Amino acid sequence: xxxxxxxxxxxxxxxxxxxxxxxxxxxxxxxxxxxxxxxxxxxxxxxxxxxxxxxxxxxxxxxxxxxxxxxxxxxxxxxxxxxxxxxxxxxxxxxxxxxxxxxxxxxxxxxxxxxxxxxxxxxxxxxxxxxxxxxxxxxxxxxxxxxxxxxxxxxxxxxxxxxxxxxxxxxxxxxxxxxxxxxxxxxxxxxxxxxxxxxxxxxxxxxxxxxxxxxxxxxxxxxxxxxxxxxxxxxxxxxxxxxxxxxxxxxxxxxxxxxxxxxxxxxxxxxxxxxxxxxxxxxxxxxxxxxxxxxxxxx
Length: 299
Known about the structure:
By secondary structure, the protein is an alpha/beta fold. The chain is 38% helix and 16% strand. The strands form two sheets. It has an eight-stranded mixed β-sheet with strand order 3-2-1-4-8-6-9-7, with helices on both faces. A two-stranded antiparallel sheet has the order 5-10. Strand 2, helix 2 and strand 3 (66-71) form a beta-alpha-beta unit. Helix 6 packs parallel to helix 9. The chain is globular, with a radius of gyration of 19 Å. The termini are far apart. Residues 287-299 have low confidence and may be disordered.
């Protein structure tokens, strides 16, 4: 199998980075994969010790076909670091597996993503392969793999033809969503606040590359392949990350077995979409519900 290189983005979280790398090393295809690590520079002097601790650790790594470390002297920020790194690597290799420093993977993570890249490489409507899916209530109703419109960011892979569709201009994306009256659909009929997140990115209130990746895929009607059971879990929802709060609502048990990735109809799975909408409605109660819950707690 022609394996995609792995691009790992790290910054100032030594413990998280170690968990991510150790799990990745246990992957079936790790020893045959090229690993490219981008280490962002410290934002200020107080961050330098942690950045250096991470850099000292990654310089000790082995267990991969090759390891290439790119250290940025200055702080690019999460979005610019990922956009720059993915663009550089995919230009050379034509495909890529992308990880951040707070994602712990199953030992079958690389196999799933590489299988997906191989099976759907010539399908123009498929923009990416994603290794995480949410802990929805009725997951038993879903097939082993399925498609949803858009693209996500917790352990994913794509081809050059997919990344070429990425538009870093949030204002252009928002204008197109509004012009085509797609904002409600983009927000999963109100279950999510993607449009608001994109608006905040435009105003400089967040530095999200992921919302622009999602919007880029969405406006071009592209699909991402998902597994029913996740091959990755996020350990960064503990206030340690750039954009993460503290929550356990995304917690999953990662799948430690192989699944077969085969050609399936390249259409959005409406059952999966409906389950995801219910999940977000259940985990993001309205303001009125929050007030009611607070009053119950008080009295």
